[in-house]
Amino acid sequence: MKARLTFLLKDQAAIDVVLDSDHRYTLGRANDNDIVITDPSISQYHAELYQENDFWLLQDCQSQNGLWVDNQSLDCCVLTDQLSGLLGNVPFMVEHLSQQRLDAEFANNDWRTAQSQRIISNLDPEQQDNIFAEYISAVVQLTNMERGLLLLGDSLETMRIHAISGLAAKELNLQEFSGSVGAIEQASTDREALVAMDTSNHPMLSSRDTTTLKNIAALACVPLLQGEQLLGLIYTDSQTAGKVLRRLDFDILISLADQIAANIYSLSINDNLIRLIDKVRNLPHQTLLDIPLERIHQSKLG
């Protein structure tokens, strides 16, 4: 059996590591740790992980906020299956997995990664009636989430929903879905990706009662950007209790968002070009043919 250790950060994708028996790990906030955990409650060099007599041990390194299991402060603990605790204020959990299950997960991860790199390019941008629905369907499927929205607009005021997945139209009522509105507001304002797990504890979303009532276990909201220009947002979430948005899920989401943004930008350029061509075609004929040649020369020189 292999041990997988997962750290659940409130506003980042989960950090998960399948432990290698030949390796000794350092954990902390400093960048030269084997496992870097960027949470203010984590010390620069917080803990160590090592195997002894076929057991994995998590050893506190005299950190400021310690190691906690079952509300008890410990210097060291054995990573038994289904163990959960806190490193500083960061929850962690342990799973013991068979090699067969790990191989299946790795194969699925490889498939999702490969699909995410080509699925958008395989969609036909000429089929604009279906393209936005295909975009958000790919996001939900490949990130292992359940629901998704594709919003287009260059500001929060102009943002409109163009496609949904896993949602009924009635669920888009602000009172029914206000937790996600908070995420959308922040992502569109900051123009940075937002991730939250167990949103009842998230500092930005916890004040919205409907977030807790809707039992949103994990969510991500990613702005669609072309340079500095905001084109829209992708929102996706899961209501499955204990849902973990892992680093690979988030990386796939970012990859898809980049591809979708590029395609939407290309579509917008094509639409603008078509409008310009139509406008020129509709101009009175003499405006194209009756301009004196010297005026054309002057305009070029000027």
TrEMBL record:
Record domain FHA: where: 25-74
Protein name: GAF domain-containing protein
Superkingdom as given in the UniProt entry: Bacteria
InterPro entries documented for this protein: FHA_dom, GAF, GAF-like_dom_sf, SMAD_FHA_dom_sf
Native organism taxonomy: Bacteria, Pseudomonadati, Pseudomonadota, Gammaproteobacteria, Oceanospirillales
